[in-house]
Amino acid sequence: VKEFLMPYEELLFLAGARELNEIDKSNVKKVKDDQKDVLIEALLNKLRSDSGNDVTFIVGKEKKRIGANKYILSAASTHFEGMFCRGFSEAEKNEIEINDIQPDAFQVLIQWLYGQSFEDAINSVLRNEEAFTTEQECYETYYLNFLVHLLTVTDIYNIEQLKNIIENAIISSCINIHNVCEILEWSKNCEASQLSNYCINFIRSNKEIIVEQRLEYCAITTNEKEIIEESEMIDLMLFDEGQ
Questions:
Q1: Between vectors from CA 165 to CA 119 and to CA 170, what angle results, nearest 5°?
Q2: How many CB atoms are located within 10 Å of the residue 129 CB?
Q3: Which residues form the BTB domain (predicted)?
Q4: Spatial distance between the Cα atoms of 117 and 187, rounded to a whole number of angstroms
């Protein structure tokens, strides 16, 4: 019965209307109305099993072999679309050598292009935090360096959405007074404008503390190269203050 007729329930019964009995729907199986998750998992399974791959990237000095499918990469990235679908020599190659890129970072890029979430993709290659047991090894530094490598890959392959995700990850958990100047330089090299702007604002808001910390480090270190680098960074910050 339509809502506007509800006040006339008794009149409707007198006119011969019948009341329907509702059936319990709680045990009816609920299903998704799209195939997105199923498709992504199927694609990732094929990637892992090397089934359907028609190109192998030989990556980094380690010469790690990473397989993929040209059509899937072309659909997910304008860079790979240009590489494989517009008459470039790579379209005919079964193996493509890529130098100066960390293999694990490239692996994350491929898995993300196949539809895997950023978190799942990086967790599949990152070392376990519990493996860092000495003062010489720091998980936070390792994690930041990995993100910077990955940021470089997104810049090379012009993957803006993934670049934005990585910028957000660095901003949310990695920046402090000890590394903000270095991260700013890295962000400029990768044209990561969101990260650059955040670092600039962080430095301007905390310049006195950052300069003090770097002067203290210059006073205790005996590494001449580090002293020069720290001094140059301090000069840059003080120069910016005078602008």
A1: 90
A2: 10
A3: 53-114
A4: 23
